[in-house]
Amino acid sequence: MMLEEKDLQVLKSMMETVVNARASKTETVLLQMIQDLKRKAEELEIRIA
């Protein structure tokens, strides 16, 4: 099966959208984890002090 150039462009665009969405979601999850760790560290420092 041969795909035409416009079909390939559409597929490429769709794949890029999926990859970007996954990367964005991963980044968001990591940022949330970092925020949680910072909060925990602050709580521990308060308890220790």
UniProtKB/TrEMBL annotation:
Q: Which domain of life is it from?
A: Bacteria
Tell me the protein's name. Uncharacterized protein
Its lineage reads:
Bacteria, Bacillati, Bacillota, Clostridia, Lachnospirales
